[in-house]
Design brief:
The chain contains eight helices and five strands; from the N terminus they run ββαααααβββααα. With about 230 residues, the protein is α+β, with helices and mostly antiparallel strands. The protein folds into two domains: about 70 residues, Helix Hairpins; about 120 residues, 3-Layer(bab) Sandwich (minor pseudopilin epsh fold). A hairpin with a 2-residue loop joins strand 1 and strand 2. Helix 2 crosses helix 3. It is an enzyme of class 1 (oxidoreductase). This is Superoxide dismutase. It catalyses: 2 superoxide + 2 H(+) = H2O2 + O2. Its cofactor is Fe cation.
Length: about 230
C-alpha cells in the first residue's frame, strides 16, 4: 500500500498483489487464461476503482484494506467503496488459499478442530461444497474461526449468535460480503462468481468446487491462518 498526500489528507493507494505463484502454476486444474482474466482484469478493476473512490476521503486516510472493508460495510448500510474494497480483499485471500499441488487432507490442530466441529473431514467437505454450490448467484463460501462468546465490535454484525459452541463454521456470503464484517477470522474461501470458473468449467460449478477442494487448497495456508486467529490479541 502506497501513501500520498492529497489536499492535506494522507491518502492510501492500494496495489494489485500478484498471486503467490506463476499464472500457469495451477494448471491443469485452473488455467492460465482464467488467472489472466480473473486476476489481471477483474481483480485489477476492483483495486483501481477502490483507489478512485477513496482518494481524498476519510477511507483513504492511511487505513488498511481490512479497515476500509469494515468501515464501508457500515453495519449493513453499505458505503460506495464497500464492494470494491471487499472484492479486493476477497481476491487476495482467495489466491493465497491455493497452491500448485494442493488439495488432500489437512493435519495437526486444524484437522482435529474440523473433526470436532463437523464430525469428520468428510462431513466438513460435504458442508463446504454444499455452501459453495447453493450460494445463489455470485458470492463466496468460507471456513471461518469464531472465538466463543466473542462480542460484536466496531461495525461488525454477528449473523449467527446461536452458534456459541463452535469454533469452526462454514458460511456463505453474497456478492462482495465477507466474514470480516461479522468479526470472524477467515481461514479458507472459494470464489463462486461465474468469472472464477466459467472459462474452465462453463456452468459446472460443482465440478469446479470439487477440483478446488481436491487439487488446489493450500492447507498450510489455512493452518497458518488458524494459528493467527487463535493467537491472543496484542
Amino acid at each position: 500500500m502506497e501513501q500520498r498526500k492529497t489536499g492535506g489528507r494522507i491518502s492510501a493507494k492500494f496495489d494489485l498483489k500478484p498471486p503467490p505463484y506463476p499464472l500457469n502454476a495451477l494448471e491443469p486444474h485452473m488455467s492460465k487464461d482464467t488467472l489472466e482474466f480473473h486476476w489481471g482484469k477483474h481483480h485489477r478493476a476492483y483495486v483501481d476503482n477502490l483507489n478512485k473512490q477513496i482518494v481524498g476521503t476519510e477511507l483513504g486516510d492511511g487505513k488498511s484494506l481490512e479497515d476500509v472493508v469494515i468501515a464501508s460495510y457500515n453495519k449493513g448500510d453499505l458505503l460506495p467503496a464497500f464492494n470494491n474494497a471487499a472484492q479486493a480483499w476477497n481476491h487476495d485471500f482467495f489466491w493465497e488459499s491455493m497452491k500448485p499441488g494442493g488439495g488432500g487432507k489437512p493435519s495437526g490442530e486444524l484437522l482435529g478442530l474440523i473433526e470436532r466441529d463437523f464430525g469428520s473431514f468428510e462431513k466438513f467437505l460435504e458442508e463446504f461444497k454444499a455452501a459453495a454450490a447453493t450460494q445463489f448467484g455470485s458470492g463466496w463460501a468460507w471456513l471461518v474461526y469464531k472465538a466463543n462468546n466473542r462480542a460484536d465490535v466496531a461495525n461488525a454484525v454477528n449473523p449467527l449468535p446461536s452458534e456459541k459452541d463452535k469454533s469452526l463454521l462454514v458460511v456463505k456470503t453474497p456478492n462482495a460480503v465477507n466474514p470480516l464484517v461479522w468479526d470472524y477470522s477467515s481461514l479458507l474461501t472459494i470464489d463462486v462468481w461465474e468469472h472464477a470458473y466459467y472459462l474452465d468449467f462453463q456452468n459446472r460449478r460443482p465440478d469446479y468446487i470439487s477440483v478446488f477442494m481436491d487439487k488446489l487448497v493450500s492447507w498450510e495456508s489455512v493452518s497458518k491462518r488458524l494459528e493467527t486467529a487463535k493467537a491472543p490479541a496484542t
